[in-house]
Amino acid sequence: MTTKVIEVLFITLGILLIIIIYRLVLRRLSKGQVVHSDFCTLYSLESNPVSGVVEFYFSTPIAQHVEFAIWNSTDNCKTLKNEMMAAGGHIIRFDTSEEPNGMYTFGIITKEQKTVKKFEIKN
Q1: Architecture of the CATH domain 36-121
Q2: What share of the chain is helix, strand, coil (3-state, %, to 5)?
Q3: Is the model's pTM score more than 0.90?
């Protein structure tokens, strides 16, 4: 009878040790994970191709440093904003009349993310 109790105690102890080791491994592997809920949302333009003044819209769930830029087909970059942004929606206006016609990319860059979308300028 006592050997049966000792066997059950050792099995229980073994199961508890396995659970503890499993949780430690999970905790170790989850360090440095990206929190997707902190990502900004970059919205597509209402019309494409665009001309004149265009409004880019994005939202950020937390206050964070955001760089908003436009790249042309040769990867020349024009940074429109590079500053701390409050949580919420943001509109950035850009006059396309000074740019040559063609395909462009606009996007946001934060510490944890780079999101881009394409658009075309036809003036």
Answers
A1: Sandwich (2.60)
A2: 30, 40, 30
A3: no
